[in-house]
Amino acid sequence: MTGKLNVVLAACLVGCALALVNTQYQARHLFIELERAQAKARQLDIEWAQLQLDQSTLGKHARIEDIAHRDLGMTQLTPARTQYLTEGQE
C-alpha cells in the first residue's frame, strides 16, 4: 500500500515539476513579447513626434509664402494691382 502511495505521490511531484517548468517557459516567452511590444511602441512614439514636427514645419505661413514666390513666381497682392469689377447696368 505504501509503495503504491509513494509511486502516486512521485508521479504527482513529477507532474507538478513539469507544469512549473512549462509555466516558467511561457512566462519568459510572454515577457520577451512584452519587451518587443514596448520597444515597438517607443519607436512609434518617436516617429509620431517626428511627423508632428514635420507637419508643423511644413504648414508654416512663411515657408508656404517662400515656395509660392520661388517656385511658382507668385508675388504679394498690392492695391495697385487690384482690379475691381462692378456689375454693369444694361
UniProtKB/TrEMBL annotation:
Keywords recorded for this protein, A-Z: Cell cycle, Cell division, Cell inner membrane, Cell membrane, Coiled coil, Membrane, Signal, Transmembrane, Transmembrane helix
Coiled-coil residue spans: 27-54
Record membrane topology: Single-pass type II membrane protein
Keyword Cell membrane carried by entry: yes
UniProt-listed Pfam families: FtsL
Keyword Secreted assigned: no
Signal peptide: 1-19
Positions of transmembrane segments: none
Localisation: Cell inner membrane; Cell membrane
GO biological process: FtsZ-dependent cytokinesis
Top-level taxonomic group: Bacteria
GO CC entries: cell division site; plasma membrane
Family matches, as InterPro entries: Cell_div_FtsL
Role: Essential cell division protein. May link together the upstream cell division proteins, which are predominantly cytoplasmic, with the downstream cell division proteins, which are predominantly periplasmic.
Family assignment from sequence similarity: Belongs to the FtsL family.
Subunit: Part of a complex composed of FtsB, FtsL and FtsQ.
Record protein name field: Cell division protein FtsL
Annotated gene: ftsL
